[in-house]
Specification:
Helices cover 12% and strands 57% of the residues. By secondary structure, it is mainly beta. It has a 6-stranded antiparallel beta barrel with strand order 1-2-3-6-5-4. A hairpin with a 2-residue loop joins strand 1 (9-19) and strand 2. The longest helix is centred in the last third of the chain and has 12 residues, at 90-101. The chain is globular, with a radius of gyration of 13 Å.
Length: 103
């Protein structure tokens, strides 16, 4: 079994993102320095699809480019995506590090 490069931190953060057919909202349920998992209803992006996550941290909002690397489906409905961050802004890394140390 392959291990993750970074340990995931459990979260409950509202985020917005934009795909080919519009704007979506979801909840980031876990994250790390290079990825996150987003729960969202009726979302079905293809693998390797790239888009921007609008992600709030403290007093600012980041637009982070990401790529789909996992898709989940429950009872026939697509309900989540795992994404890899294509760029990890320093303030995002510090935010994740802060979440990790506050546990």
């Amino acid at each position: 079994m392959q291990r993750r490069a970074y340990e995931r931190v459990t979260s409950n953060i509202a985020a917005r993102f934009y795909g080919e057919s519009g704007e979506y909202a979801g909840t980031v349920t876990n994250l790390s320095e290079n990825g996150m998992f987003v729960c969202a209803e009726s979302i079905c992006f293809p693998f390797d699809f790239e888009f921007k996550m609008v992600f709030p941290i403290q007093t600012e909002v980041l637009n982070i480019p990401v790529k789909v690397c996992r898709i989940t489906k429950t009872e026939g409905n697509y309900d989540g995506i795992g994404v890899q961050l294509l760029d990890q802004p320093q303030n995002y890394k510090e935010f994740v590090s802060g979440l990790r140390t506050s546990r």
